[in-house]
Amino acid sequence: MTLLEIKDLTQLFSGLCAVSELNLSLDERELIGLIGPNGAGKTTVFNLASGFYQPTHGEIIFQGRNLAGLKPHRVSALGIARTFQNIRLWKEMSVLDNILVAQHFQLGYGLGSLFFRTPRYLKRERDIRHRALELLEIFKIDKFADEKPGNLPYGMQRKVEIVRALASGPKLLLLDEPAAGLQSTDVTELITLIQWVFDQFDLSIWMIEHQMKVVMSLCSRIAVIDFGRLIASGTPSEIQQRPKVIKAYLGDDQL
Ligand SMILES: Nc1ncnc2c1ncn2[C@@H]1O[C@H](COP(=O)(O)OP(=O)(O)OP(=O)(O)O)[C@@H](O)[C@H]1O
Ligand SMILES: [Mg+2]
């Protein structure tokens, strides 16, 4: 079953073509990669798929629904969650509150329910808190629930971002360079963690990553873009052999 379908997606930034006529689809329960050189347009694709940008041209269909015109919190409510290349956690809030506040945004609570604390609101609140704490425990960061994220090592902040994304119960999780800035032991742990998340949760994962070890070991399929265009797509071993990919991205010394 197709989960996400990208059709003729194009994004122009005042003359610069960041994404160009991109066609790509992702099935339910797939773990795929998106790679390409710096500035290839990878993050822009995620910004489009999560409602942060509206495409200049083309369509993004998620579970049969066109995402055109939807704001990020609406896209998130439909089941697409993401992490950011540059970690975006609220520094002045605790780890737990970072996760809870994100859920509130997504649920679009009105001021009425906040002031009057309706029973339905309180029940949702309890459920969200319970789920957030459960996820923090699974990720072995529950003891930092009351810490400010800035006090945690980088690797843990990345985990908090993943927990925040998972807390919304997504059908599609977009990870933008989850291994960036991590020590090699943390990278190994992250690979295990992402595989575990994929096995345990009923979702698909689409991951941007520069570290070949991560994409090659996790992804069943990898899309390669260069200058916003799809230049290859296939299994890790297939794409490693494509001359275009080697030239654009992997470098001759990789093979
Ligand atoms: N909001 C924006 N306004 C103008 N130009 C942008 C904007 N966002 C991205 N770009 C440009 O679009 C191109 C693609 O950027 P993007 O961040 O998607 O690349 P990337 O593949 O994620 O690169 P990296 O591997 O360095 O993260 C770049 O030339 C970038 O400067
Ligand atoms: Mg990027």
Can you walk through the features of this model?
It is built from ten helices and ten strands. It has one domain: Rossmann fold. 36% of the residues are buried. The strands form two sheets. The chain has a six-stranded mixed β-sheet, with helices on both faces. Strands 2-1-4-5 form a four-stranded antiparallel β-sheet, covered by helices on one side. The chain has helices at 42-49, 72-78, 95-107, 111-116, 119-138, 154-166, 184-200, 212-218, 236-241, 243-250, and strands at 2-13, 16-27, 31-35, 57-62, 65-66, 80-82, 172-176, 204-208, 221-226, 229-234. Bound molecules: adenosine-5'-triphosphate and magnesium ion. Magnesium ion binds at residues 42-43, 85.
Quick take:
By secondary structure, the chain is an alpha/beta fold. The chain has helices at 42-49, 72-78, 95-107, 111-116, 119-138, 154-166, 184-200, 212-218, 236-241, 243-250, and strands spanning 2-13, 16-27, 31-35, 57-62, 65-66, 80-82, 172-176, 204-208, 221-226, 229-234.
Which geometry do the CA atoms define? globular
Task: Assign the CATH architecture.
Answer: 3-Layer(aba) Sandwich
Assembly level:
single chain
Q: How many helices? A: 10
Helix content: 40-55%
Present as ligands are: adenosine-5'-triphosphate, magnesium ion
CATH topology: Rossmann fold
What is the total domain count? 1
Structural class: alpha/beta
Order of helices and strands: EEEHEEHEHHHHEHEHEEHH
Provide the CATH superfamily.
P-loop containing nucleotide triphosphate hydrolases
Number of strands: 10
The stretches of 5 or more residues where confidence is low (pLDDT under 50) are none
Mean pLDDT: 90
Enumerate the strands of the largest sheet in spatial order, edge to edge or round the barrel: 6-7-8-3-9-10
